[in-house]
Write a structure and sequence with these properties.
mainly alpha, 7 helices
Length: 142
Amino acid sequence: MEKKLEKKVKVEILKPKVPIRRFDVFAEWNRIKALKEYGFSEEDAKAYGLAVAKVVAARKFFGHRLKYRGATREYLEGKTTQKWWEKLASAKEFDEKIVERMGRDFYEKVFSPAILKAYEEGKDYVDIRDSIRQEWNKLLEG
């Protein structure tokens, strides 16, 4: 008599190294927007996404008003060649503060594809910023 061997397949659930913040979602959302709507290179898109998140956080948490309102439009319209976001962030910093913080595997296989999907489905950032990270952050609890 032959014994039937059962193969147990272990399914690995990728989870972030640390809790996912609104800041992370906003930076990624704006990285994608820069790629899709503005035609930025990947390097510029990363710097732009992080810079926009920093500007909003500075305004929200510290009351700072940074003078970049309209600067992206001026760049896109060719009125200036100055990339304001380069003063505040870089692609390397995006990788350090967003990608490596949560874990590159999680970022590439889970986080970024989920944000891209929501963006391409036409969802609004405000509508997804909390719900999209809820399950990921629960994975860290247990």
